Amino acid sequence: MLDTPAEFSIGQVAERTGLSVHTLRLYEREGLLTGRLRRSSGGRRVYGEWDVQWLDNCTKFRASGMPLATIRRLAELVGEGPGNEAERLELLRAHRQRVLDRIAELHDCLDLISSKVTAYEEAVRQGTADRLWSTPSTGPDTDPGPDADERR
Asked: How far apart are CA 33 and CA 20, in angstroms?
């Protein structure tokens, strides 16, 4: 018995990927797929397992902030086949660095937020929360409290 490749309608692919039908059509128009989609005899789009896997990758690329232009170029390179792996690698390395930079920035933000949570928890526990985030319009504050740096 021969295995026939799985074929999916646009609705089935939308279900499997979590992308809307509108987004799938947009991705096709924007050139984000690795090749032209096949069409059924009735003119409907026919996706294969490879297309679904590629769309899963695209979803992760977008979630990580990869620009559509970069995904488009990567799709072109993949669609061209072997021989351009070095360029694909460069695109992926550059994006990986952007993601790492963003993660570092978010860690810095998280550190600040965590220190503020700790300061607020302590102030609420001690009953001094009314001194947090005082502004010039709320009057002088004789005890700057744990968030004095925020009033600058």
From this structure: 15
